Predict the structure.
Amino acid sequence: MQTADRLKKIPPYLFVELRKKINKAKAEGIDVISLAIGDPVEPTPDSIIDELCLRARDPGNHRYPTDEEKGMLAFRQEVARWYDVRFEVALDPASEILGLIGSKEGCHHFILGCINPGDIVLMTDPGYPAYRASILMAGGEPYNVPILAGNRYLPILEDIPTDVAKKARGMFLNYPNNPTGACATREFFDRLTDFARQFDIAVCYDNPYGEILFDGQERLSFLMAEGAKEVGVELNSLSKLFNMTGWRIGMAVGNPDIIAAMSKVKENTDSGIFNPIQYAGIHALKKEPQNIDNMLQIYGRRRKMVIETLSRIGMNFDPPKGTFYLWVPVPRGMTSIEFTNLLFDKAAIVVAAGTAYGQYGEGYIRISLTVTDNRLREAMERFEKALA
Ligand SMILES: Cc1ncc(COP(=O)(O)O)c(C=O)c1O
């Protein structure tokens, strides 16, 4: 059977490979603790589930969710209210908001809507693997922009060669950053907006961790920057904020031309989000912001536990202040993969190797805080023993 050449360029999806490894070890009776995947273990709040059940009982919601291709107007209105309250960003629900089946699909729709085959698309390295896959599937050329500890994991836009910037038509960024945990700044947004305007680059700012912040870090949306809406869109999601990763609901907000392009892709790809999930999403945004505060307490506690363990065994580092990941430098003299294998072999702990996110991820592992406190405690005890 012929399969498309474009797929050959895409490496196997990181977590599919990891899951295989974990399942194999489990089948051998090993008690594996995975700190590799960012998927909250706490359930979705009850009231959101109740809203889904209630709406699912209405036969009117069993049909195609065609209230509007861009998502139900009521959902988009609620997203507009959320952006107003959380970020003081004004959005027009009619033209500046698109409901999504998660921000991951938004990446894909952004590329298909904005990029022609052969166009360069800038992405950070390390970076979320779905960006590269989206670019390659659309025939674009990914260009890696390093993000390094020395510049607090922000790209140095002036270092991007001018001939590359001139050919670039799109850029993916994500802060609070997966995998590094780094946060952006208002000054950086201004520079990014100027850069995008100068070279006519559509920015896709992916913000699903926008509220997972510690130590007083400021909550930011790219759209807070003057002129940002002229150059880009922001993707956001209910996945991480409301423990709804499996529900598949998110949104793209910002530049109306990009939203219209993404919407055209979307209406020709799927038929929108199941109405009861959109109602549940409205309910989450309206009634459950407390869940974010609750989760921040939990992640903060776990973050402290990991940082203290690592510090006890001499693995000191300056942790950035966002996301529920810790981006940890591996012991001197080891590669990311060697250290990942050591943790697996000696402690049955799975972490993500930094190189899974790009060449500049070498020398790091990513630890996710989305397991229960007890499992994390157990993992940290094993971690400490393995390195004793
Ligand atoms: C940077 C980044 N973008 C997007 C996603 C996907 O989120 P969603 O569940 O909204 O598709 C993830 C999930 O891990 C992520 O880390």
About this structure: The mean pLDDT is 95. The chain is about 40% helix and 15% strand. The radius of gyration is 21 Å. The first strand starts at residue 33 and ends at 34.
